[in-house]
Amino acid sequence: MRAHSSLSKDTDANAAASEAFKGAAVGAAKYGLPLALLALVGLSISPVYRALTVQFKLFIQMSGMTLGGMVEADRRLRDYESLVRRRKRVER
Predict the structure, then answer these.
(1) pTM: predicted TM-score of the whole model, two decimal places
(2) Residue 81 CB contacts under 8 Å (≥ 6 apart), including other chains
C-alpha cells in the first residue's frame, strides 16, 4: 500500500495524469472548434440564437468544450491503461 505523500514521486500516476490532461486539451479543442463554427452560423442565420444572452451563448460553448474534454481525457486514459497493462504483461 502506498503512503499518502508518494503521489509526487509516482511516475505511473503522473504519466497517467499527464496523458489525461493532454486528452482533455485536445478534446476541448476538437469539440470547441465545430461549436464555434455553429455559433457563427447561428449568429448569421437564426434570430433565436441572436436573441440569446452572451452569458448563455458562452455557457453553450463551454458545455460542449467540457464534454469534449471529458470524453477525450477518458479515452486517452483508457488507452494509456491498456498500454501499461500490455507492457507489464510483456515484462512478466
Answers:
(1) 0.79
(2) 16
Q: How many CA atoms lie within 13 A of 72 on its CB side?
A: 20
Predicted confidence (pLDDT) at residue 86 exceeds the cutoff of 90 = yes
The set of cell numbers assigned to 23 is 486528452
Whether 12 and 44 have beta carbons less than 8 Å apart is answered as no
State the pLDDT at residue 12.
84
Instruction: Report the amino acid identity of residue 67.
Output: L
Contact at 8 Å (CB) between 16 and 53? no
| All cell numbers assigned to 15 | 504519466
Full DSSP string of 1-33: ---GGGGGG-HHHHHHHHHHHHHHHHHHHHHHH
